Amino acid sequence: MANGSFDDWDSANEPSGWNIAGNVGEETKNVHTLGFSANLGTPTGVDNPAKLGQTLTEVKCGCCYRFEFHATGHNNSEDAFRAQVLFDGSVVTEVLLPSPVEPQYSYFSAYVPCVPPGVTVDILFIKPGAGTWFIDDVGFIAEGPCTGGYWHPFGGCDSGVSTV
Known about the structure:
The protein is mostly beta strands. It has a single domain, classed as Galactose-binding domain-like (Jelly Rolls), CATH 2.60.120. The chain is built from no helices and 13 strands. Strands 4, 5, 7, 10, 12 and 13 form a six-stranded antiparallel beta sheet that branches. Strands 3-6-11-8-9 form a five-stranded antiparallel beta sheet, with no helix packed on it. The chain has a two-stranded antiparallel ribbon with strand order 1-2. A hairpin with a 2-residue loop joins strand 8 and strand 9. Residues 151-156 and 159-164 have low confidence and may be disordered.
């Protein structure tokens, strides 16, 4: 995946390589590693929802993947912060984050089922209306080939494809 560490920004509100960014800002103080993270909930104090997403271009069909990221933040509503993997617009993996995850970053991960041939794979972070979340070090890592939706280790998938 492109720019999972959020080191590159096209503007203060558009991380490079991410094709969906609404109410997202470049963060330099509250980061997990290196110099930047994504702040979902900008401008601060505005209770609009935020979305951050990327269409993955180097995903191999027949491989199982691990979706991972670090996050910290809070909701001021009962709606959960969501991290999703979608195949052709349908959610296949979802991580619901408890609120709050503070004061420091926590690691989250989920396994993604076998990628079928010809599908578009997207990752999407969705912040509910109120609160602020910080996302950093996002990865989509090939774990191995799979049959029938289950992971079979050792061979077949290039583990260097689509990593952070």
